[in-house]
Design goal:
141 residues, alpha/beta, OB fold (Dihydrolipoamide Acetyltransferase, E2P), five-stranded mixed β-barrel, 3 helices, 17% helix, 41% strand
Length: 141
């Protein structure tokens, strides 16, 4: 019998934010940053508030956020790859296992730095230790 374990981080939600008031990260001078300008997302929220909503009531949070496009603002605490080699960014929630895990492309992930506040647009897939966002792109005004 073969068993596999997949670890996924969890993040906590932050207060609702309007991405137009958020300063996005700037790439180092010698790189080109992959940034997508997004006119609208369905929901704008902080990483801390998103995680908080899932901590309070996962069923209700899924009804509010799952399968919807979210603009999530938070501070990057980790830039890594999962066991399949897919790059992701962790936005700080409310603790070690309460974060937002944002899967993105390698170019975007390689140009970011930890401790940088960003707004990222992605599709919410619900809670799996962390709140998971897929197909994430940086928000740009």
């Amino acid at each position: 019998m073969i068993a596999s374990i997949i670890l996924v981080g969890v993040s906590a939600p932050n207060k609702d934010v309007n991405p137009t008031n958020i300063q996005t990260s700037q790439p180092p001078n010698n790189t080109t940053q992959s940034v997508e300008t997004v006119i609208e997302s369905e929901i704008q929220i902080s990483a801390k508030n998103l995680v908080s909503e899932y901590a309070k009531n996962e069923v209700r949070a899924d009804k509010m956020f799952r399968d919807k496009k979210l603009a999530v603002t938070g501070v990057i605490t980790k830039i890594h790859k999962d066991i399949l080699g897919d790059p992701y960014i962790i936005l700080k929630g409310d603790g070690f296992l309460n974060n937002v895990q944002c899967f993105t492309d390698e170019n975007t992930a390689s140009e970011l730095n930890i401790n940088t506040k960003i707004t990222i647009i992605g599709s919410c897939e619900g809670l799996m230790m962390n709140v998971i966002l897929k197909d994430c792109k940086l928000y740009s005004e």
